[in-house]
Amino acid sequence: MASKKDNTQRAEKLSLLWTFMGGAKRYFLVTVLAAGLTALADMLQPQIIRAAVDCALGGKEGDFPAFVMKAVNSIGGFTYLGEHLWIMALAILVVAAFQVAGQYLFRVYNTKASETLVKSMRDRLFSHIQRLPFSWHMKNRTGDIIQRCTSDIDTMKNFLSEQLTSIFRIVIVLMLLFGNLRAPIVVIVTLPLIFIGVVAGLAITGKMFDFFSLLGLLGLVGMNVKNAVVLISRIRELRDDGYEPRSAVVEAATDRLVPVVVASLTTIFGMLPLVGDSMFGSMAVTIMGGLFVATLLVLVVLPVIYTLFYRIRL
Question: Pseudo-torsion of CA 87, 66, 234, 225, nearest 10°?
Fold first, then answer.
């Protein structure tokens, strides 16, 4: 009965959040797309410069992903680009233009989305407060409540600005690292599952999810991505050495068992003294619980997801 009530309350909260978003939905969509464009341009520009200096002018072999090398070879290779540097200069200018356009669109629509969302919340709050009896206003500080509910516009905008761009940077870096889209998807798919450990840790210790928990969660994402990259890289190395796909997955998971577990336990035990701290306790619990589950994800769930995406029969 309690579980059914909790599900009903959760559904009502999600419905209320969706209602608050109202006309901001399209603004948030444009914000996400602009953040992706900006992150892509941020990553491409230094890579183009590196290709021009090291490969086109320096004569070094390119170590770029296969699809990039294929595109370069289709127009004559780096030798041709070295003889026609204007092509690479034009590419840098085009990427810079996209970067500026993405940053402009992001700032404009991020501001519109945040202000529209907060205005919707403010109007709904005002409408509700106006219907309350006068005796309620006498007992409570209405002005303080309104101020606390509507004073986080800048925080919301800054958070969206930093975190959306960072997420896209992670995806793009992984694409450049692995040279395909499937490996980054395998890594990203496992990230939401770390909330299992985060929620369990906070529930067991009675801590609340606050700002410091958010900081811990962001660090936790980086740890999980690092472990996943190490495991997938090991699988690729073994497959390049001639291992069967199934054997490569099993061998890589076995090889990385001790390093991943020891590194995770070191971090977890290092966070133990902070659990009782009034300020950093929630952050420590978030990292400890999430990292415990993330370790299992890397060693058990991630290899399974890898076999599904790469159609490897076990």
Answer: 50
Asked if the structure places residue 311 within a domain, the reply is: yes
Residue with tokens 């959760």: 10
Q: Which amino acid is at 202?
A: L
Q: Which of 127, 162, 178 corresponds to the end of one domain?
A: 178
Burial 76-102 (b: 16+ CB within 10 A, else e): eebeebbeeeeebeebbeebeebbeeb
Domain stops at, among 178, 193, 227: 178
| Joined tokens for residue 198 | 């985060």
Range of the domain at 71: 19-178
Q: What is the per-residue pLDDT across 227-263, written as a single tens digit (0 to 9) for each?
A: 888 888 888 888 888 888 888 888 888 888 888 888 8
The answer to whether residue 220 sits within a structural domain is yes
* Reported pTM: 0.61
Side-chain-facing half-sphere of 56: CA atoms under 13 Å = 21
pLDDT tens track for 69-105: 888 888 888 888 888 888 888 989 999 999 899 888 8
**Which token pair is 297?**
């994800």
